[in-house]
Amino acid sequence: MEAARDGTGDVAGGRAFPEDHALAWPAPLLLVLTFVSGLVDAVSFLGLGQVFVANMTGNVVFLGLAVAGVGGLSTTGPATALAAFLVGAVAAGRWPRAAVGGRLTALLVAGEAVLAAVALGCELSGAGRYAVLVPLAVGMGLQNGMVRRLDVPDLTTTVVTRTLTGLAGARGGPAAVRRAVSVTVLFLGAATGGLLYAGPGAGWALGVAVVLLVGVVAAAVRGGAGPAAG
To answer: Which end of the chain, N or C, is less surrounded by CB atoms within 10 Å?
Structure first.
C-alpha cells in the first residue's frame, strides 16, 4: 500500500501512526540503530574498499560503475555486500509473523550484535577484508528486515533519502522533528565512525557498535512487547 499522510499522522505500510509515535518505544532504540548504521558504514567505506554494509543504494551504484569499468572500482566488494545483506534481510523476513515487536527486536538485534562481534574479532585478528565485511552486511540485513516489520515512520535506520524528502515538505510538528533527528543521528554515527577510524582504529568503532547493539537488546527485553510486527 502506498504511503500517505493525513492530518492525524503517518500511514506506513497500511497502518496509521499518531504524530507522537516517535516518543514511544521502540523509536529511541531505532535511533540507536541509526547511529550504528552510520558508524559501521563509515568503517566499511574507509577500511573495506569503498563499500557499504548498510547503505545498499550506494553499493548498487558502485556495482554499476564497476561493471562499466570506470572509477577503478571492483565488482567483488559491492556484490559481496549486497549478497550478504540479502541473506540477513531474508532471515529477518522469514521470522514467524506472530512475533511481537519487543521479542523480535531483541532476538534479531542480538543476532546482529553477535555478527558485529565476529566482525570485530576478525578485524583485530587481521583475518581479512571479507571476513569483516560479510558479518557486518548480514547484520545490517537483519536490522533492516526487522525495521521494515516494525514499520515506524521515518525511522528506517539506514536510508534517509525519503526521510529528507518528507522533511522538506513537512509543515513542522512531531513528524518533522522525527525526520530531522533521524538524519542527524545517521550523520553523527558516520562522523563518529570516521573519527574513530582515523584515530584509534576501526576496531574501536566496531567495539562501540557492539556495545550499542547489546544495549538495544537489553532495552528491548526490559521494554517487553512493543508494536506488533507484521
So the answer is: N
CATH fold of 25-223: Growth Hormone; Chain: A; (1.20.1250)
C-alpha cell at 177: 522533528
DSSP three-state, residue 213: helix
Helices (H), strands (E): how many in the chain? 8, 3
Confidence band for 19, pLDDT divided at 50, 70 and 90: very low
pLDDT on residue 157: 84
Predicted pLDDT at 1: 34
Contacts of 97 (CB under 8 A, 6+ apart): 229, 230
Q: What is the distance between the alpha carbons of residues 170 and 132, in angstroms, rounded to a whole number? A: 39
- Element at 82 (helix H, strand E): helix 76-93
> In 10 A of CB 164, how many CB atoms?
15
